[in-house]
Automatic annotation (TrEMBL):
It comes from the Eukaryota. InterPro entries: PP2-like. Pfam families: PP2. This is Uncharacterized protein. It comes from Arundo donax (Giant reed).
Length: 220
């Protein structure tokens, strides 16, 4: 895990390395491998997806480590290998879902809040605009009896799309949450961030995960 202070606000920032995350099948070399020496990585090792149809990554951080009275966002920091497949945003294919869950306080009075967003990890054909996700689309699907069926995907105005950074890596926002302010200067509890694509049964390869960064979010 790496730690820093945001220059703009002085608030604390953390990044959970891939090793600090919970990755389903992460200990099976047929599914994930650990790669070293990637340029721009803040950590010596990153996790590279070999082949899975069940993609699930999550990480936790104690709220007491963060700055009180601050709104944070969590970002998956990653890149895509040249031989990747199954990660692109395609019409008719279920996209990943990201969930941010905050458990505030301690038992038995702890409270839980959760938000969920649709995530795009890779644009089709190098498409860098999010407009394609935010309009209603129709597509044909071939049924098991080889007949075609016209389906409609409703517009998703809240889909989170990736942004390429100057160091060559990409990031996509997984969600946001607020840390309460208080006289004690810290809040008991934990925030859990997860990324899942488990319903589409689509085989995937080539996602290279550096970690999940948690830093202050500003509206302007």
């Amino acid at each position: 895990m790496s730690f820093g202070l945001e220059r703009r606000s002085g608030a604390k920032c953390f990044m959970l390395s891939a090793r600090a995350l919970s990755i389903v099948w992460g200990d099976d070399p047929a599914c994930w491998i650990w790669t070293t020496g990637l340029p721009g990585s803040r950590f010596p090792e990153v996790a590279e997806l070999v082949d899975v149809c069940w993609l699930e990554i999550s990480g936790k951080l104690n709220l007491s480590l963060l700055s009180p009275g601050t709104t944070y966002a969590a970002y998956l920091v990653y890149t895509i290998a040249d031989d990747s497949y199954g990660l692109e945003c395609n019409i008719g294919i279920l996209p990943p879902k990201a969930t941010v869950t905050v458990v505030s306080g301690t038992k038995p009075t702890a409270t839980t809040s959760s938000t969920e967003h649709t995530i795009c990890l890779q644009h089709m054909h190098g498409e860098e605009e999010a407009v394609m996700h935010r309009r209603k689309q129709q597509y044909m699907r071939l049924r098991k009896d080889y007949r075609r069926k016209l389906l409609t995907r409703e517009a998703d105005p809240d889909i989170r799309c990736p942004r390429r950074m100057s160091d060559g890596w990409a990031e996509v926002e997984l969600g946001e949450f607020a840390v309460a302010g208080g006289a004690t200067g810290s809040e008991d509890g934990v925030v859990e961030v997860s990324l899942k694509e488990i319903d589409g049964q689509r085989w995937k390869r080539g996602l290279i995960v550096q970690g999940i960064e948690i830093r202050p979010k500003h509206t302007s």
